[in-house]
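Can anyone check this?
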Amino acid sequence: MTLLDSALHAVASWTPRSPAEEAERSEFLAALDQGADALSRHPLRSHLTASAFILDTRREHVLLVFHGKGKFWVQPGGHLESEDAGILEAALREATEETGLLPGQLTGLQMVDLDHHQLSGAFGHCLSHLDIGVAMTTDGTPRPSVSDESDDVRWFPVGDLPEDTVHGFSPRLAEVLERLRHA
């Protein structure tokens, strides 16, 4: 299965729980109809990304990175790479690259949301990301480490997020947690 096939399968098999989620899913499928260009940073100005909602097993804490370009706290994530075997693997790779956690520390990977968000001019060519959110859990809150891609990495209580999280993160996390409760 190619990375494009994995993305198509993930989005097509994701079950929307509201008309807004159905519209989001349709938007992602339309983007993926453009073929492999939707997975690449170029030539399209909107493209697919994968991110990781890293939670402790009790779902009381979430691991966030402070994004250097955006100057906000957000879940780890980023562009898909040609060597990624699929969407879950891309999110896991991003999680380990940006937090220093080991792949074996992250379990229970499952796709939990779709989010199309606009980007500021600080992101250059990219105008927006079509982000596939993947939940994963750790045993406790293992110590993360800062990478080249972020200025800081920290655990936060899910009910006490920092004020400078990326716009829309708090309701997105609430929806992810709700989806996990009903999984």
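Reply from J.R.: I decoded it. The chain has one domain: 3-181.
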